[in-house]
Amino acid sequence: MSAIDDLIAGYRRFRGGYYETNRDEFARLRQSPKIAVVACCDSRVDPAVITDSTTGELFVIRNVANLVPPCEGQGERSWHGTSAALQFAVCDLAVEHLIVLGHARCGGIRALLEGQAHKHEDGFIASWMSIADEACERAMARDDLQTFDERAHACELDAIGISLANLKTFPWIRERVEQNSLQLHGWYYDMMTGDLLRLDEGEGGFVSLY
User: Fold this and answer.
1) Residue 152: how many other CB atoms lie within 10 Å
2) Which of 2, 13, 65, 135 has the greatest CB tally within 10 Å of its CB?
3) Residue 163's CB: how many other CB atoms inside 10 A?
């Protein structure tokens, strides 16, 4: 059986089981989540699975390395998928919480550290990952980090802070944060240990949510 056949078989189980059991709920379900999550497109990191959330609870924005770009003007040929999703979540859905969810063993971050983000001629990955260039530079400059895995881990955490700072460059996010109608959060998930950490700006680091 192929991977697509497995997917179709899974749909049929869903259609005949969970969907049928919850058919009335699906018919009434409206999109009114209180939480938006910027997550990585890594197949191992599903925000709904990690938080045991049900359908409709999370508005999820996924991209390479869960990065948020700074607010930019609309150029002639510019495309702003993540920014557009953020605007919809904040301005139209009026979410109350916005989480940047980083994770361990992130392929985008590791490619950035190894210089592999530049290996493709079209440059899409390199251009996108440049959002985290400062995190990469700081990780590479640290004398207390001895191994590549240690540097990758530091870069993954630092990149979350960069994305949180970039969120505040969007005027409609900054305004809502200042009005206390929107809260920003930085989380980090380690699939090897199951640990989920949050950025505590008061403590200056990440602390366990478990």
Assistant:
1) 21
2) 65
3) 25
7-41 per-position pLDDT tens digit: 999 999 999 999 999 999 989 998 999 999 999 99
Q: Rounded CA gap, 101 and 45, in Å?
A: 9
Give the C-alpha separation, 128 to 132, whole Å: 8
- Whether the CB-CB separation of 34 and 59 falls below 8 Å is answered with no
pTM: 0.93
Count the Cβ atoms, other than its own, within 10 Å of residue 145.
16
Q: How many Å separate Cα 194 from the centre of its chain?
A: 17
- pLDDT, tens digit, 9 for 90 and up, residues 36-54: 999 999 999 999 999 999 9
36: Cβ contacts below 8 Å, ≥ 6 apart: 58, 59, 60, 61, 86, 89, 90, 93, 95, 97, 98, 99
Q: Two tokens at 178?
A: 């200042």
Asked if residue 164 lies in contact with residue 100, where contact means CB atoms within 8 angstroms, the answer is: yes
